Structures are given as C-alpha cells and as structure tokens.
Amino acid sequence: MTQTDLEGPAATPPGLTRRQVYEARIRRRSMRVAATSTGAVLLALFILIPLAPGWEGVKKSFFNADVFARTFPGLLEAFLLDVAIFAWSAPLIFLLGLLIALCRDAQSPALYPLRLFGILYTDIFRGVPVILVIYLIGFGIPGLGLPRPWNSPYIWGTVALVLTYAAYVAEVLRSGIESIHQSQRAAAASLGLSHSDTMRFVVLPQAIRRVVPANMNLFIALQKDVALLSFIGPVEIFRQAGVYKSLLANFTPYVGAALIFLAVTIPATRYADYLMNKQARARS
Amino acid sequence: MTKLELQGVTKRFGENVVCRGIDLKINEGEMVCLIGASGSGKSTLLRCMNLLEPVDDGVILLDGVDIAEPGLDPQPVRQRIGIVFQSFNLFPHMTAVENVMLAPRRVHNRTRDDLLPEVTELFTRFGLADRMDHYPDQLSGGQQQRVAIVRALAMKPEIMLFDEITSALDPELVGEVLDVLRRLREAGMTMVLATHEMGFARELADKVCFLDKGVILEEGPPAQLFSDPKQERTCAFLARVL
C-alpha cells in the first residue's frame, strides 16, 4: 500500500500510520478535556470555600503561616521518632509475619500446635483494633513493675504495633505461598528435596517476591499508625503537634504534621502502585 | 535384569480410577514408551513410579524392593528416579545452572565449586554451554526443556521418566529435545516415556505399551505393535495418530 492510498486528513505526518495519527488526536483531546474540568473544579473551590461564613476563623486557626513557620522544625524533629519506630519495627514485623505464615503451613501432626497457634494469632490480632492492642500492651506490661528501661511505653507500644502488623503480613505471605503453583513443589519433590528445603529455596523466594506490592501497602499503613503510639506517651510528631496546639491555641501544627506524613506516604504509595502495575502487566 | 517392575498398580482420584491394576516390567538400559489417548493414565502411571502420586494398591519393585509400600519415605526413591515434565517446571527465580545445582547441593551436600565441572560438562553435552547463567524466561521452550533434563540428570538417577516432554514445544523445537533422548539412549539410561511422538517411539523404543482407560491393553516391540496391532482399540488409536 502506498502513501496515497491513505484516507483521512491530507496532512498525515510522514512515518506515522493512520492508527497512530488517530490515537494521537484522541489523546490530545482527552488531555484537553481533563485539564479543563480539573481547572474548573479548582477554580470553584478557590472561589466557593472563602465565601463560607466561618472561613476567616478557619484560616486563622488552621492555615496560620506564622504558626506554621514556628512549629514546623519542631515537628520535623519529632517525626524522627516516628521514623525510628518504623525503622526498627518493620524488619521485626516481617520476620514475625514470616514465622506465623510458616506455622500455618506446618504439615506434620507433631507441629499441629504451631498451626493452631498461627490460626489463633492471625484471627486475634486482625480482629482487635490496633489502638486497643497498644493500650493493653503499652499500659499493661509496664504495669507489671518492670525496671527501667523495660517499662518504657515506647518499647511496649512498638511491640504492640509489631504484634498487630505481623498478623496482616503473615496473611499476605500465606496467600503468596499458596499462589505458587503445585507443579513447582512437584518438581522440587521429584529431585528429592525435603519439604523444608522446597519451602526455603523454591516456594518462599517466589512467594515473597510476588507479594511485595501487597506488603508495601501494609507498611505504608504502618507509617501512619506509628502516630497512634502518641496515645500512650512517646512524644512523636502527633503528640508534639498537640503540645504546640495547646501552647499556641492554634491547629496549624496538625496541618504541618499532616503535610510531613504525606511527604513520606505519597511517594511510597505511588511506588507500591507502580510495582503492582508492573506485576499485573508481567502476568497478563 | 529387571530394574523396575509394576504389579497391579492401581490409582484412584476420588471416584475416578485412573490406573486399573497395571503390570509392567522395565529392564535395565531399556527404553519403554507409553502411548495412548489423553486421559488414558500415562502421566499418572509415570508420577506413581517415582511416588509423586501415592499408589492406592499394587506393588512397585525397584531392584526387587517394594517402593510403593505405604509409609515409606519417598525422598530416597525420588533421588534414584528422575522425572521431566511436559511444562518444564524450572524454578523461575534461579538461573539455569542454579536450577541444576540446587538438588545436588541440598540433598548430596555438595558445594558449587565441586559440582561445577560435571554440571558444565552436562550443559556442554546438550548444547547449553552458553546458557548456564540465563534465567528460564530468557530461554526458548526447547532450551528450557533441555535444562530440565540436565537438572534431573545432575542427581545421577538410575531411571529417567519423561512425561510428554515435547508436547508443549513448538514443532521446530521438538527435534533438539528428542536428540537429547537419543543420546541418553545411547548412553544406556533406563527410560520410560509417555509420548505422542510415534515416529520416535517406533525408531528407538525396546517396548511400546498402549494404555487405554487405565490398563495396558497391548504391549510389544514397536515393529510388532505399530504394524500388526492385535487389539481393535489399538488399531483405532494408531489410525488416528499415524
């Protein structure tokens, strides 16, 4: 077929097929429509919200630039404690989650208690609100009269987070383990590999990789839930914001804290989505 | 000498009886081909031979020792009987050479360095020397299947089972895999194949067994079974596939 056979606009750029020209046109049109409608919505918000009767008051107590500038550095510093709690609980959560997932996979009758433990564990810790676990463990265990530093709510609050999140991670890992096709286990068995070697070298490496995106989502949720520890004492960012709020009689520090959380969670969420899309494409 | 002998092997999946009392003798160094329509029980019979499927009834004698006894540890038996699957079943997260080395390392407690010369020799022998560090998804179907064969051979099995290993391959890749079997045959390996490659079975098999509805309906040397089948069903099957 020669170029002159092409139908459509005469100004077909050379080197493009009819389909490419058509798709480029549709793409440009979609982008124009999306930009226009987004602009219209934003404009409406900027015009309508300030018309509300309480806007002046809200602006002063939530979006006070002066307060923001004074409290932001302090909030950032308090956020380091959140980061620290996250950093040492995340690996523990993964290890405990893996252990529980393996318990639930135990086959031999002698290990049935482990299996039962795995089931009870995931049922209980997924069934209780995180904040309740934090209260019970964070106040209950130091209440036993342990010596310093073992009575710190910082430690026991983190333990509560680890226990709860490990239950979710265990379920995610177990779904990964179950998603590995039976033929992989058959191949390993046919080579004479033991059950535990099959799990360790064949099933787990594939399963863990497959559930990375799902686990990423859990760890993003964990980043936020670290703030729940503020209820039992540690002065992390949420509590620090509360202190500033009382001191300055202004809610702006909460907005600052929210921005700091978003600065971490949004990139992490985008990354998890990217991984998940990549995996979905690889499988299709 | 009889290497493997099946006596009345029976296998059920629920109500469905897949093997109905199969008797079969395989001599050392022999190549036996199982032919028959899909669902006739060929694959299941192979999987029973290396205990991937527990046998419901009957006896399987390996060098005169019953390996089908319930409660017997299947692992040592599986180390002596290798199997290659239709769908390759390579471990996708490992390179070809890691796939091959995993079982000897874990089961025979050998080191990578110790294994490398003989594994390299195996890869070279089957034309895969430049593919050792490739991942399965970087290999063609024929190459993957040859790696799967090398993986089974690295355990130095006494018997090799092949479960329709060319059925998932593009026609132009079948030849390279059949060549591998030809070489194993020359090297004197005891082999059992479930296959649809009638030409290959006719050329190389010592014995061909026609399976139908879970029984061996007819067996004999290929020359006899292919040109002068006694059973009506065998005739009908051969007429369809030849």
From TrEMBL, chain A:
Output the SUPFAM superfamilies linked to this UniProt entry. MetI-like
Q: Does the keyword Cell membrane apply?
A: yes
Query: One Pfam family, short name please?
Result: BPD_transp_1
Q: What is its main location?
A: membrane
Task: State the membrane topology.
Answer: Multi-pass membrane protein
Tell whether Transmembrane helix is among the UniProt keywords: yes
Matching PROSITE patterns: ABC_TM1
Entry GO CC: ATP-binding cassette (ABC) transporter complex
Which compartments does it reside in? Cell inner membrane; Cell membrane
Q: Which ranges does the record mark as transmembrane?
A: 33-55, 75-103, 124-142, 154-173, 247-268
Among InterPro entries, the record links this protein to:
AA_ABC_transptr_permease_3TM, ArtM/GltK/GlnP/TcyL/YhdX-like, MetI-like, MetI-like_sf
Enumerate the spans annotated as ABC transmembrane type-1 domain.
79-272
Q: Which UniProt keywords apply?
A: Amino-acid transport, Cell membrane, Membrane, Transmembrane, Transmembrane helix, Transport
What are its GO biological-process terms? Answer: amino acid transport
* An annotated Gene Ontology molecular function: transmembrane transporter activity
**What job does this protein perform?**
Part of the binding-protein-dependent transport system for glutamine; probably responsible for the translocation of the substrate across the membrane.
Family indicated by similarity: Belongs to the binding-protein-dependent transport system permease family. HisMQ subfamily.
Can you name this protein?
Inner membrane amino-acid ABC transporter permease protein YecS
| Species name | Boseongicola aestuarii
Upper lineage is: Bacteria, Pseudomonadati, Pseudomonadota, Alphaproteobacteria, Rhodobacterales
TrEMBL record, chain B:
SMART domains hit by this protein: AAA
Kindly give the membrane topology term recorded for this protein: Peripheral membrane protein
Q: What is its EC number?
A: 3.6.3.-
Q: Name the predominant localization.
A: membrane
Return the protein name. Answer: Glutamine transport ATP-binding protein GlnQ
Question: GO CC annotations?
Answer: plasma membrane
Example GO molecular function: ABC-type amino acid transporter activity
Query: Where's the ABC transporter domain?
Result: 4-238
The reply on keyword Cell membrane is yes
Q: Which positions make up the signal peptide?
A: none
Matching PANTHER family = AMINO ACID IMPORT ATP-BINDING PROTEIN, GLUTAMATE_ASPARTATE IMPORT ATP-BINDING PROTEIN GLTL
| Keywords associated with the record | Amino-acid transport, ATP-binding, Cell membrane, Hydrolase, Membrane, Nucleotide-binding, Transport
Q: Does the keyword Lipoprotein apply?
A: no
Which InterPro entries does the record associate with it? AAA+_ATPase (IPR003593), ABC_ATPase_HisP-typ (IPR030679), ABC_transporter-like_ATP-bd (IPR003439), ABC_transporter-like_CS (IPR017871), MetN_ABC_transporter-like (IPR050086), P-loop_NTPase (IPR027417)
Localization per Swiss-Prot or TrEMBL = Cell membrane
Q: Which family does it belong to?
A: Belongs to the ABC transporter superfamily.
